[in-house]
Design a protein that fits this description.
Pathway: Amino-acid degradation; L-kynurenine degradation; L-alanine and anthranilate from L-kynurenine: step 1/1; Cofactor biosynthesis; NAD(+) biosynthesis; quinolinate from L-kynurenine: step 2/3. The chain is of the alpha/beta class and about 425 residues long. Helix 9 links the parallel strand 6 and strand 7. The chain has a seven-stranded mixed beta sheet, sandwiched between helices. It has a four-stranded antiparallel beta sheet with strand order 9-10-13-12. The chain is globular, with a radius of gyration of 22 Å. About 35% of the residues lie in helices and about 15% in strands. Helix 2 runs antiparallel to helix 11 and helix 5 crosses helix 6. It binds pyridoxal-5'-phosphate (PLP). The site of pyridoxal-5'-phosphate has 13 residues, from helix 5 and helix 6.
Length: about 425
């Protein structure tokens, strides 16, 4: 076996087929960024695009730009590009709203499509907004449906004839654990249930083949692995076979068959546009498109290969060099069930992460004790992993985390 030293990691970077993508990102000098699973890095081209959209399209074009720059079709145009990243067809994906709002629209639509069934199934410990949105829907349904959560290991058996819709996050935000999308989708259909996949930690991170597995619906996030910028719009997917019957509760004017006919009565658009509600952020969607264009130019198989290798090497380094410091490794060593992050536990996790961040090595912390390290193969180098663990060894050996300044809880962790 290779010796795990810094030069070994440098040698991996030298033959990395994705290495040249790093140039396209405006990563501040001296930073190691292992948090692209929470907020992706600024693409250099997004700066010019922001200037163009604000100064030219908005500033000079004013209202005319709805037509001259085709603002009106941005949700669909950018959605079609995302479709290529998640194994969907053009016309099945649209950019709109936030992931949370998109989940509400689709969960309500699914419950209506499967009327008469009483159960929405999810897992405890799913991303909070997913559970909160489903709780909100449950409360609006006046007892007609109830949210039931079952642990990951029992989820297959919990899908039954009473299940209207299964709502799961493909890659878990805390542990990085990945569900078998094909198997669970097949089970849902066997029982007559619909399924919604939350792809927030999957899109741009792991291969996703929605139509190949026969998924019904999906939602996802623009500001994580797609590098769309803080608060970038989210997206949603609805399989073509459902579009004609899909009714969603936020029936705003952008979902109308003809928004500018300005009629009093709602009539849903024929296609995926019926899932729109109001005006999509043009600035947000334009910047998201820049991130997606970069992602679309990269080979997802290479991304996955590098991401898994990074995860494996990171865990090996932690075991090799941090064994005596009390870290636990939460993420699975089995690549079949691991997304693009590695999570560690430590009782001083928050302070340790703050000490790393003070050195411009940026991961994040999730209560109560999880340190997350996300791997984004387009701009993270192998040598960054070595340097990160090297800093961790220093921080732990000399108790450098044990300072008041590293223990003050911040609003966003
Ligand atoms: C990040 C994330 C979201 C984000 O939802 P917003 O509406 O954009 O705030 C939703 N679901 C999951 C699983 C996430 O990881």
């Amino acid at each position: 076996m290779e010796t795990l030293d810094r030069s070994y990691f440098e040698s991996l970077d030298q033959v990395d087929p994705l290495a040249e993508f790093r140039e396209q990102f405006d990563l501040p000098a001296g930073h190691i960024y292992l948090n692209g699973n929470s907020l992706g890095v600024l693409p250099k081209a997004a700066k010019e695009k922001a200037r163009e959209v604000v100064e030219e399209q908005w500033g000079q074009g004013l209202i005319r730009s709805w037509n001259t720059y085709d603002w009106i079709h941005i949700p669909r145009r950018v959605g079609d590009k995302i479709a290529g990243l998640i194994g969907a067809e053009p016309g099945e994906v649209i950019v709109a709203d936030s992931t949370s709002v998109n989940l509400f629209k689709l969960a309500a639509a699914a419950v209506k499509l499967n009327a008469g069934r009483s159960k929405i199934l999810s897992e405890p410990g799913n991303f909070p907004t997913d559970l909160y949105i489903l709780q909100g829907l449950e409360s609006f349904m006046d007892g007609k449906v109830r949210l039931v959560t079952e642990s990951r290991d029992c989820i297959m058996d919990a899908i039954d004839e009473e299940t209207a819709v299964v709502v799961l996050t493909h890659v878990h935000y805390k542990s990085g654990a990945m569900f078998d999308m094909a198997a669970i989708t097949a089970r849902a259909h066997e029982k007559g249930a619909l399924i919604i996949w939350d792809l927030s930690h999957s899109t741009g991170a792991v291969p996703v083949a929605l139509n190949q597995v026969g998924a019904d619906f999906a939602v996802g996030c623009g500001y994580k692995y797609l590098n769309g910028g803080p608060g970038a719009p989210g997206f949603l997917f609805a399989a073509k076979r459902h579009l004609a019957h899909l009714e969603q509760p936020l029936s705003g004017w952008f979902g109308h068959a003809n928004p500018f006919a300005m009629r009093d009565d709602y009539e849903p658009a024929q296609g995926i546009e019926r899932t729109l509600c109001g005006t999509t952020s043009v600035v947000g969607a334009s910047l998201l498109e820049v991130g997606i264009d970069i992602m679309a130019a990269a080979d997802m198989n290479l991304i996955r290969e590098k991401s898994l290798r990074m995860g494996q090497l990171f865990m090996e380094l932690i075991e090799l060099r941090c064994g005596q410091f009390g870290f636990g490794i939460v993420s699975s060593k089995d690549p079949a069930v691991r997304g693009s992050q590695v999570s560690l536990t430590h009782e001083q996790g928050f302070a340790i992460m703050q000490a790393l961040i003070a050195r411009n090595i940026i991961g994040d912390f999730r209560a109560p004790n999880i340190l997350r390290f996300g791997f984004t193969p387009l701009y993270v180098r192998y040598v960054d992993l070595w340097d990160c663990v090297d800093a961790l060894v220093d921080i732990m050996t000399h108790d450098l985390w044990n300072k008041a300044e590293f223990k003050k809880l911040t609003a966003v962790t």
